[in-house]
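Reminder to self: tokens first, then the designed residues, so the page reads top to bottom the way the pipeline ran.
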């Protein structure tokens, strides 16, 4: 299980911030060539990303790069600069259709081969950020190389022409739709960043809503957000204890030829056991990462 609880954006044109990222405890350091980089700095960011992806990986960080959307004309050069054995994946901004992802796959394939990588090694995380993308999300989630899809609420509300509110009612439907599409495709759903980075309690509440909707992780824009995100998308101690009790009780019930059981006054059957086993697998993945 590849952990995608916390992914932090680091502007690709800021060497001082890339240096700081060497010590971040996010599951993924996402070097950004898109929204956080002004147009005049795009080429500089691309060349810095070429240098910093191996350095971050050598420091034990799992590294991805967010490239600009295909319609900018920058994507191919950015991919050529960063694809290497040090890179875990690519995030592509403002993807709107399966064609966008097929085109990205066609560009990545030869670059992957030139870097000596196995076909399909470079994974993709497209951003769902428009009404058109939401309508196409089921097909996009099933495209080649996709390991997760990310929801960008800020660009989505801009596309819809509606204001962004603290309550988030305006994004509830697409946010939930995206999580369902990801689950149907067997990939992760990732929530966009909480932009009020000086409001830790607001972040905690927002991340908890995302978890309840079925998201596996969330993007950060400030290192102070990483611990809260990791905590929210990690099982709580009481959840782990209950999952272990479920699995143990189920093993005993199966040995006695029973297909369900009563635990703490609640029925336990196959779906409950599957959920418990998935939670314990996540705990094991977190344990392995923390011990690495």
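Designed residues (292 positions):
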């Amino acid at each position: 299980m590849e952990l995608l609880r916390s992914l932090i954006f680091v502007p690709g044109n800021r060497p001082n911030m890339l240096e700081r990222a060497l010590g971040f405890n996010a599951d993924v350091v996402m070097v950004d060539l898109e929204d956080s980089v002004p147009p005049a700095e795009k080429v500089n960011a691309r060349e810095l990303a070429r240098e910093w992806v191996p350095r971050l990986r050598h420091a034990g960080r799992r590294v991805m790069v967010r490239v600009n959307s295909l319609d900018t004309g920058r994507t191919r050069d950015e991919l050529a600069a960063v694809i290497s054995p040090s890179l875990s994946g690519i995030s592509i901004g403002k993807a709107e259709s399966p064609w966008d992802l097929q085109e990205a796959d066609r560009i990545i394939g030869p670059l992957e081969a030139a870097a000596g990588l196995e076909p399909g090694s470079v994974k993709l995380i497209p951003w769902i950020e428009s009404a058109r993308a939401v309508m196409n999300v089921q097909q996009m989630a099933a495209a080649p190389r996709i390991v997760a899809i990310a929801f960008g609420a800020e660009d989505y509300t801009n596309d819809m022409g509606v204001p962004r509110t603290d309550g988030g009612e305006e994004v509830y439907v697409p946010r939930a739709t995206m999580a369902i599409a990801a689950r149907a495709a067997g990939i992760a759903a990732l929530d966009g960043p909480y932009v009020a980075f000086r409001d830790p309690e607001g972040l905690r509440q927002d991340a908890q809503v995302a978890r309840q909707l079925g998201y596996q992780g969330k993007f950060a824009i400030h290192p102070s957000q990483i611990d809260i995100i990791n905590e929210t998308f990690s099982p709580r101690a009481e959840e782990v204890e209950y999952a272990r009790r479920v699995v143990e009780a189920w093993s005993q019930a199966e040995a006695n030829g029973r297909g369900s059981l009563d635990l703490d006054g609640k029925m336990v059957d196959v779906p409950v056991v599957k959920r418990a086993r998935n939670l314990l697998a996540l705990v094991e993945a977190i344990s392995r990462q923390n011990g690495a």
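The mean pLDDT is 92.
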